[in-house]
Design brief:
This protein is an alpha/beta fold and about 350 residues long. Helix content is about 45%, strand content about 15%. It folds into three domains: about 45 residues, 434 Repressor (Amino-terminal Domain); about 130 residues, Rossmann fold (3-Layer(aba) Sandwich); about 130 residues, Response regulator (Rossmann fold). The strands form two sheets. A six-stranded parallel sheet has the order 2-1-3-4-5-11, sandwiched between helices. Strands 7-6-8-9-10-12 form a six-stranded mixed sheet, with helices on both faces. Helix 10 packs across helix 11.
């Protein structure tokens, strides 16, 4: 039989009200009584019914996170950071993978609403319609969009300075002497990737470099490997690539090795994110770092601020990316190989 609070109270020799205060961490209870109640709860395998408590208090301390491709290490590190931050404040994070599918996303969001989550962290799917934003607004759920900014400014947002980051990445390669630079990775034609491509194109144009090459592919290592092989076969003059993410970049480096070439010497590669794998890749990956774990903590912090004051003006936080030079970038062959200080 499922243990009840009354069973805990009886086993501890206290009233049900006293047992309830102990389990909620409320009231002025002696340390001896508190320990006795907690010991009884442990022996009986009692767990407080959070749903019932939420209904009574009007507060739900569980936050939903609707994201895409949980298996991507960047997303996993963001989730870890958000979870740790929320846990430290007494909240629980539950995650659903919408796989960039609007129908699946709708089911996930409705599930969060039905279970009265205390707030929502959300990466909107590529084709999210206005009705979905209206749904969340109608239910008044404290919401923070992540990476992809939409919703006509009705929600707080945490994102990345994508345009400037790819100006920096592409400019770094141009400073090293590269003229034939390709953009590798992603397939979305809006939002984050569009901003990144715009930054890449801006430098290619300003520096009077070769014609831009935009190479679509899924953002995983195998896709990056296959795309790099295809890119090199069709454009052997390319001496450098800026990648939509570290996973694509690591796959590209594997492809360069398969071609009998060396990343950083024959073809330079810059990733984006600075996931943990970037520093221990072979060779270690040059990347634009946004510290995914810290980004997740920032996302959770904004959500907590919204939950605590749902009437405050909406905010938008854009995190800059920082170039981290490792071993996958260098001067192209035929140019002085010594890097700038």
């Amino acid at each position: 039989m499922k243990p009840k609070l009354e069973n805990v109270a009886k086993a501890a020799g206290v009233s049900t009200a006293t047992a309830s205060q102990v389990m909620r961490g409320a009231g002025r209870i002696s340390e001896a009584t508190r320990k006795r109640v907690l010991a009884a709860a442990k022996d009986l395998h009692y767990v407080r019914d959070g749903r019932a408590a939420s209904m009574r208090s009007g507060e739900n301390r569980e936050i939903g996170f609707a994201i895409h491709q949980i298996a991507n290490p960047f997303n996993a590190e963001v989730i870890s950071g958000a979870s740790d931050m929320l846990e430290s404040e007494g909240y629980l994070l539950s995650v659903l993978d919408s796989r960039d599918d609007v129908a699946r996303q709708r089911r996930n969001l409705e599930a969060f609403i039905q279970s009265s989550r205390g707030g929502l962290l959300w990466v909107p799917a590529e084709d999210t319609d206005d009705a979905t934003y209206d749904l969340l607004a109608a239910h008044g759920m404290p919401t923070v969009t992540f990476l992809r900014r939409s919703g006509r400014g009705r929600f707080d947002h945490v994102g990345i300075e994508n345009h400037e980051a790819f100006r920096t990445a592409t400019g770094h390669l141009a400073d090293l002497g590269h003229r034939h630079i390709a953009y590798l990775g992603g397939s979305a034609q809006f939002g984050v990737r569009t901003e990144r491509i715009a930054g890449y194109r801006a430098i290619m144009d300003e520096r009077d470099l070769a014609a831009p090459i935009i190479w679509d592919t899924r953002d995983d290592k195998l896709s990056g490997l296959e795309a790099m092989l295809d890119l090199y076969a069709r454009h052997p003059d390319v001496t450098a690539v800026v990648c939509n993410g570290d996973m694509v970049a690591i796959g590209a480096c594997a492809a360069i090795n398969m071609l009998g070439l060396t990343p950083g010497s024959d073809i330079s590669v810059i990733g984006f994110d600075d996931i943990q794998d970037a520093a221990i890749a072979a060779p270690p990956l040059t990347t634009m770092a946004v510290s995914p774990y810290d980004l997740g903590r920032k996302l959770a912090k904004v959500a907590l601020e919204r939950i605590r004051d749902n009437d405050m003006p909406t905010s938008s936080v854009l995190v800059p990316a920082e170039l981290v030079e490792r071993e996958t970038t260098g001067r192209p062959r035929g140019v002085n190989r010594q890097k700038r200080p």
